Amino acid sequence: MNTTDGLCEQFPLFVVPPHVESRWATAENLMAAKGAAARANAGRKGDPFFPLAAGERKVIGEVRGHSGMIRWIYVTVLDRSPKMWRGLRLDFYWDGASRPAVSAPLGDLFGLGLGQCVPFESVFNGSAEGKSFHLHVPMPFRKGFKAVVTNETDQVQKIFAYAIEFTLGDDIPPEACYFHAHWRRERLTTFQKDYEVLPRVEGRGRFLGSCCSVIVNQADYLDLWWGEGEPKVYLDGDREYPTIAGSGVEDYFGSGWEFDGPYAQRYHGLPICDKVRMRFSMYRYHVPDPLYFHQECRMTIQQMGSWGPTTRPRLHAHGKPVYKAGPGLVEDDLSREDPERPYGLFERRDDWSSCAYFYLDRPENDLPPLPPWEERVAGL
User: Fold this and answer.
1) Has residue 245 got a pLDDT over 90?
2) I need a surface site. Which of 50, 193, 286, 288 has the fewest CB within 10 A?
3) How sure is the predictor about 11, in pLDDT bands with cuts at 50, 70 and 90?
């Protein structure tokens, strides 16, 4: 049950598994109760959505005492401003846990950061016409689940329409893990301290991938390339050095030689590529290339840029200090051309945010809680 394709192999389209029932939690049937949908207005579309007042918290799906699997989640709202995409919060609790396994802003959870809405499609999530979002990561539960939406902003969301589509009665094998999602942001990263997409989690599981977003620090680095840093995955006892490291940000997210424009593919993509405002949002999902862990996992990305023959003089004229990539912060001398060194790497600080997806063998994790909405939307 690690992929949607695996689910189709376990339950082919022409097989109806015994004792498994289908349910949808929607505004017409919040608890997905049998025979309880479409009752408003005598069945003539009375409650297709609901408003969310500023600060309002609403349970939008709950099951108790049953096993099952969430299979598809759909959301659309009227106010699709950056404030709302980052200020609306979704939390999912598994098996009666007191802490959510999934806790993330609406947009980032569905694969788009920076509070923006653009059309795209991936193996797990996407947006039709930039007006709605869907998420179809298999999410098994053994004793039930609870889904909660919270409008943490200071404005009303007049329309929230959704569907959580799941099955009840699934036989969940003992090795099946729970789905988790963790969001974080550093408005300015620290020199030579790799940004943590996934802080260290303990247990057995699988790092499924992430949606990462960057707002480039143009005040210091103009519009120069920012993605030379290595992605790193620390597995099962790794401390100073990881077991897995990639060659660069754009390579890890499926492209190469910097980013030229938006793209969206099955397992990796760059739906937002704004080279005027220097804002980027990208995703990478490890489906055919699983990243399993048996004790612990941590995933990071370095903040590192590059200069060349045409950009070196621009950086020098800009007058900001530029530090060489290396074991310490040593200022780079960009005042003159050096034929033996036409290109260089430098340490940098930018605004990074991310939503990491992973499976874990327990319904809770010990990661920090979601930051306040003001921190999530600042600068958007």
Assistant:
1) yes
2) 288
3) low
Q: What is the pLDDT of residue 10?
A: 56
Pair 70, 135: CB distance under 8 Å: no
Quick: pLDDT tens for 40-86: 898 899 889 999 999 999 999 999 999 999 999 999 999 999 999 99
227 bridge partner residues: 304
Contact 185, 86 (CB under 8 A): no
- Region 236-245: mean pLDDT is 96
Q: What angle do CA 111, 362, 244 make, to 5 degrees?
A: 60
DSSP per-residue letters across 269-328 = EEEEEETTTTEEEEEEE-SSS-EEESSEEEEEE--EEEE-TTTHHHHHHHT---EESSSS
Q: pTM above 0.70?
A: yes
Residue 268: band (very low, low, confident or very high) from pLDDT cuts 50, 70, 90: very high
Does 280 score more than 90 pLDDT? Answer: yes
Instruction: Write the burial class of residue 139 (CB in 10 Å: 0-12 exposed, 13-18 middle, 19+ buried).
Output: buried
Residue 182's nearest CA partner among 216, 205, 156 is: 205
Cα(373)–Cα(174) distance, rounded to whole angstroms? Answer: 37
Tokens of 125: 């999530």
Tokens standing for 320?
């900001």
Q: Which amino acid is at 274?
A: D
Amino acid at position 341, single letter: R
Torsion of CA 216, 221, 223, 227, to 10 degrees: -60
According to DSSP, residue 230 is labeled P
Domains and CATH numbers, the chain: 4-176 (2.60.120.1390), 184-353 (2.60.120)
